[in-house]
Amino acid sequence: MSQPSTWTRVRMKVKRMLVWVRAHVPPGLRLLLGLVLIAGGILGFLPVLGFWMLPLGVAVAALDIAPLWRWLQSRK
Predict the structure, then answer these.
(1) Which single residue of 17, 18, 41, 71 has CA 20 to 30 Å from 53?
(2) Rounded to whole angstroms, how far apart are CA atoms 10 and 23?
(3) How sure is the predictor about 6, in pLDDT bands with cuts at 50, 70 and 90?
(4) Has this prediction a pTM greater than 0.85?
(5) What is the total count of domains within the chain?
(6) Does residue 28 belong to any structural domain of this protein?
(7) Can you tell me the distance from the alpha carbon of 25 to that of 22, in angstroms, rounded to the nearest whole number?
(8) What is the pLDDT of residues 22-76, one digit of tens each?
(9) Secondary structure class of 2 (helix, strand, coil)
(10) If you ran DSSP here, which 8-state letter would residue 47 be given?
(11) In a domain, 21, yes or no
(12) By the 8 A CB rule, do 57 and 38 touch?
């Protein structure tokens, strides 16, 4: 049997993390957490922060933005 590729493992870990965030972090705080991660990713050249924070922040913020967008579209 072949093992999954590195990118497949990374995608599975990110998916599990997003499921955990959706279950344990309240909606308003998820958006704030996503924006903080994006801001930290912009400062990725600093030692503690990293550019890995950008896609993770976008993914976490998207958990709240999609339902908000659908709600706004349904009001028209």
Answers:
(1) 71
(2) 20
(3) confident
(4) no
(5) 1
(6) yes
(7) 6
(8) 889 888 888 898 899 889 888 888 777 788 888 888 888 888 887 777 776 787 6
(9) coil
(10) S
(11) yes
(12) yes
Q: Are 32 and 21 in contact (CB under 8 A)?
A: no
Domain with 50, as residue range(s), is 6-74
Q: What is residue 5's predicted lDDT score, i.e. its pLDDT? A: 85
For the chain, where are the E strands, in sequence order?
Answer: none
Q: Spell out the residues 6+ positions from residue 50 whose beta carbon is closer than 8 angstroms to its own.
A: 40, 41, 44
pLDDT number for residue 75: 77
Q: How many CA atoms lie within 13 A of 67 on its CB side?
A: 9
- The pLDDT score that the predictor gives to residue 18 is 84
Reading the block at residue 70, the tokens are 């659908």
| Distance (Å, whole) CA 6 – CA 32 | 30
Q: Is the pLDDT of residue 1 over 60?
A: no
- Measured at the CA of 39, the angle between CA 38 and CA 41, to 5 degrees, comes to 65
Evaluate whether residue 69 is within a structural domain: yes
